[in-house]
Design a protein that fits this description.
Length: about 110
Amino acid sequence: MKFSFLVPVNPPSGVIQAGTEMELSAELAALYAGRGFDHLAPIDAEAKALLEALRSGKEYKPPLANATEHPPADVERTRAELLAEAKYLHIKGADGMKKEELIAAISEAKS
């Protein structure tokens, strides 16, 4: 996620000047955002989504890497892939589900 600093900040590594653009993890962005979440300006869509989640007190859900809405029909997904998506969708008990149960739970959660 890419942000622009609106005010100078003084982390242990040294001062970051206002106007500096920097790639930050979600954890660092939350730390540097300030109490009013007004120390950073988002540059990309993911950064904007994180700041909106922080401001509203909602949980930030990062996008899945290489996620597609509908995987190609000829590519069968592994249980590990299904489990990762189930966790992303906050499906309870996904760890104990069989592959077929995961497919059904994911389908139900998306509808």
